[in-house]
Specification:
The chain is an alpha+beta fold. Helix content is 51%, strand content 10%. The chain is built from 26 helices and 16 strands. Helix 14 crosses helix 15 and helix 20 (453-467) packs across helix 24. Monomer. Interacts with DnaB. RNA polymerase that catalyzes the synthesis of short RNA molecules used as primers for DNA polymerase during DNA replication.
Length: 598
């Protein structure tokens, strides 16, 4: 977790919000008995098994197991990390968290709120203004971008005027604030201000929390610079921001894979063709901060840059940057000097998907790129290639991957495997290297599993009570009422006794909707775990064993009394319990022997 905050910021957030309000702002929630219920947003279902407890401020899905508090819900639904989820909730529910921020971060929420407000209002103006420009609308239409696409990405247009945005926003905000968010530039005299963006298609840059933090502007002709981005500000850091992540993060529920492209139009083209997990850097080279940001959301990154020389160099540089940051990185080779947008237009979705499926691993791409500079039919150049290739392979930490590339290189160039392996492993080479071992392998000790017998007995009783309630006689029910259980089990027993006092049949759905969420969670887990054992449970044996456990607990208490109190009454109770325990043990032993003979 980030060290950005200190003290109990998370407790403060949870104390100031209601989980029902938070969740119902995303999905339809309805009251059901003691709890609220909904169709789970984290897996597909027809019967609501997503239960929310307002009393405990917790949710639990009995279908997929998702559970937690309001912060956890926002993290999972919005695909945010803990800090971002907290900041989103604080902003949405007007909780001032500035006093919890460390050092230089300690500024009031209203200080940053004004910046976000300015950029939001600017985005709204640019968006509305786009429809008044025939040239801008025609340009986007020529790029196959529809009005629905414009709405999805919030695209806009800045007029070809020196003080257009100033005229729109200066009545509400001071010019210094407009400068701080990068919308205007001061003149040389320091007195007048001018619009930074003029005559450009505007791309709002939105962070994962849904806040506009900057803009990118693209010309509609060949003038330079082709793209102009907002400068670094207090809320916009290019090295820590990815265009399209606000949308892409919502596409990562099933497959945590991000495609990283080079520009705004590539991202938009990918999204519009169904590749909604695409993002891009903002006019800067990929950084380790970008890598760490992507790692929050994805387990795999696919680099999909232009196929020209510059794109190939950028791909190699990105592989070096992401090394050690993201474990699984692959590279798409589109060919023909095409970028993703052009490739999709020329070959379509299926061919592009095939390219993604065939994306090279980092090592494959490095070796493939290296190979382009050599004529492998020439012996001298083949030796030079091999000398550089073994260095690339030697950098791998995974022994199986290392040996795979050694074998491929050996087969492809018709070179003895051991010779290649010796160059890769150097002083660590031995005759076991061929099998993926670079040293002695240690045997792992087997982990022994232990079972809590008492817990097992209690769970058997609960499972039998629910599934075979009609088979319990009155004496057995009375005995169960007298038992002393652990606190958690006692709550469950009390609930199911109450449940069957007003119901004749068992309904799993009704239990999870009406029980305390802690009880229903534990109860359903027991039912699911023991469903295959119910027919085999000997309830008399279970009850007798629990009774013995209860007697042992009472005997422990009496033993303590006997150390300080030698009354006849205490001694008689001691003897009574001992005799009772022996009688029950004989029954248990007799029944166990009878079963073993069977």
């Amino acid at each position: 977790m980030s060290g950005k905050y200190e003290n109990n910021i998370f407790d403060v957030i949870l104390e100031n919000i209601n989980i029902i309000d938070v969740i119902s702002s995303y999905i339809t929630v309805e009251r059901s008995g003691k709890n609220h219920k909904a169709l789970c947003p984290f897996h597909s279902e027809k019967t609501a098994s997503f239960i929310i407890s307002e009393d405990k401020q917790l949710y639990h899905c009995f279908g997929c197991g998702a559970a937690g508090n309001a912060i956890n819900f926002v993290m999972n639904y919005e695909n945010l990390d803990y800090i971002d989820a907290v900041e989103l909730l604080a902003d949405r529910y007007h909780v001032d968290i500035s006093k919890f921020q460390k050092g230089n971060d300690q500024k009031s929420s209203s200080y940053y709120t004004q910046f976000y407000d300015i950029l939001r209002d600017a985005a709204i103006y640019y968006y509305k203004n786009l429809r008044t420009s025939d040239a801008a609308m025609q340009y986007l239409q020529n790029r196959n971008i529809t009005f629905e696409d414009i709405k999805q990405f919030g695209l806009g247009f800045s007029n070809d005027a020196w003080q257009d945005i100033i005229g729109q926003l200066s009545k509400k905000y001071d010019l210094k604030s407009l400068e701080k968010v990068g919308l205007v530039i001061p003149g040389k005299d320091g007195k007048r201000y001018y619009d930074r963006f003029r005559n450009r298609i505007m791309f709002p840059i939105i962070n994962p929390k849904g806040k506009v933090i900057g803009f990118g502007g693209r010309v509609m002709d060949d003038s330079l610079p082709k793209y102009l981005n907002s400068p670094e500000t207090e809320i916009f850091n290019k090295s820590k921001t990815l265009y399209g992540l606000n949308l892409a993060k919502n596409a990562l529920q099933e497959k945590k894979q991000l495609i990283i492209a080079e520009g705004y139009m590539d991202v938009i083209a990918l999204h519009l063709n169904g590749f909604t997990n695409a993002v891009a850097t903002l006019g800067t080279a990929l950084t380790k901060e970008h890598g760490r940001l992507m790692r929050r959301y994805a387990d795999e990154v696919i680099i999909c840059y232009d196929s020209d020389i510059a794109g190939q160099k950028a791909s190699l540089r990105s592989l070096e940057v992401l090394h050690g940051v993201i474990e699984k990185v692959r590279v798409v080779v589109l060919g023909e000097n095409l970028d993703p947008d052009d490739y999709l237009k020329k070959y379509g979705i299926e061919r592009f998907q095939a390219k993604l499926d065939q994306a090279m691993t980092a090592t494959e791409y490095k070796l493939n790129h290296l190979k382009q500079g050599f004529n492998l039919n020439n012996e001298q150049e083949k030796i030079e290639f091999l000398s550089k290739a073994v260095v690339i392979i030697g950098e791998l930490s995974n022994e199986f991957e290392k040996n795979l590339h050694i074998e491929r290189l050996s087969d492809e160039l018709n070179v003895n495997y051991d010779l290649v392996a010796k160059e890769v492993y150097k002083e660590n080479y031995n005759d076991r290297s061929h099998y993926g071992f670079s040293g002695d392998q240690k045997k792992k000790e087997a982990v022994k599993l232990t079972t809590d017998r008492n817990k097992h007995l209690e769970n058997q009783l609960i499972a039998f009570y629910i599934h075979k309630f009609t088979l319990l006689n009155e004496e057995q029910k009375k005995l169960i009422q007298q038992f002393q259980f652990s606190e958690a089990t006692q709550d469950i027993i009390d609930y199911i006794m109450y449940y069957f006092s007003i119901h004749d049949t068992f309904s799993k759905q009704e239990i999870i909707e009406n029980a305390d969420i802690t009880i229903s969670t534990a109860l359903i887990e027991i039912l699911d775990s023991y469903i295959d054992e119910v027919e085999e449970i000997d309830i008399d044996l279970v009850l007798n064993n629990i009774l013995i456990k209860n007697i042992d607990e009472e005997l422990s208490i009496i033993q303590l009394k006997l150390k300080t109190q030698f009354s006849q009454e205490v001694r008689d109770e001691w003897r009574r319990l001992i005799d009772l325990k022996n009688t029950i043990l004989q029954k248990v032993e007799k029944k166990s022997n009878f079963k073993s003979k069977e």
